[in-house]
């Protein structure tokens, strides 16, 4: 899909706050609110905007601890990898999962209320996925930056 300058401006703005009204967005983009609504609908329908969500303070909902996990597998057989991917995607505590290059095969971002909950999750991971060879855990001491914003240049 070709994105023009207006689309790119809208993408940057809705990534900052997807709850903005078309009227509010029109204050920043030289388009009418109805034109903005049409463009946003097109961006959603074409899959450029995959989904919209709220960013919640983990402490406010009892999930103050963030774990960064490096996971190694025994074999990269397609069936075993698909099983592990499916398992990871189904876990509510796994906030993000990346298949990566390097020493680890996956890097996970896991949120949990405490170390015991995290330990139980990792116990299930190992017992339900025999292809997992090992994992290492880092506990986030503080969050310097958190987000999923993709910078969209105004000009291509």
UniProtKB/TrEMBL annotation:
It holds the Pfam family HTH_24. InterPro entries: ArsR-like_HTH, AsnC-type_HTH_dom, Dimeric_a/b-barrel, Tscrpt_reg_AsnC-like, Tscrpt_reg_AsnC/Lrp_C, WH-like_DNA-bd_sf, WH_DNA-bd_sf. Keywords: DNA-binding, Transcription, Transcription regulation. The keyword Ligase does not apply. Residues 3-64 form the HTH asnC-type domain. PANTHER family: LEUCINE-RESPONSIVE REGULATORY PROTEIN, TRANSCRIPTIONAL REGULATOR AZLB. This is Lrp/AsnC family transcriptional regulator. It comes from Lysobacter arenosi.
């Amino acid at each position: 899909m070709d994105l023009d300058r207006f689309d790119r401006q809208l993408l940057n703005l809705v990534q900052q706050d997807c709850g903005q009204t078309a009227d509010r967005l029109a204050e920043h983009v030289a388009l009418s609110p109805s034109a903005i609504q049409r463009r946003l609908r097109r961006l959603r329908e074409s899959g450029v905007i995959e989904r919209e969500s709220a960013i919640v303070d983990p402490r406010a909902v009892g999930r103050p601890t963030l774990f960064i996990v490096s996971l190694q597998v025994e074999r990269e057989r397609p069936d075993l990898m698909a099983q592990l991917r499916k398992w990871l995607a189904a876990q509510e505590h796994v906030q993000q999962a990346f298949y990566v290059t390097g020493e680890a095969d996956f890097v996970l971002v896991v949120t949990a209320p405490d170390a015991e909950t995290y330990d139980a999750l990792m116990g299930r991971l190992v017992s339900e996925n025999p292809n997992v060879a090992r994992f290492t855990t880092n506990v986030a001491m503080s969050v310097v930056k958190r987000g999923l914003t993709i910078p969209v240049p105004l000009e291509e």
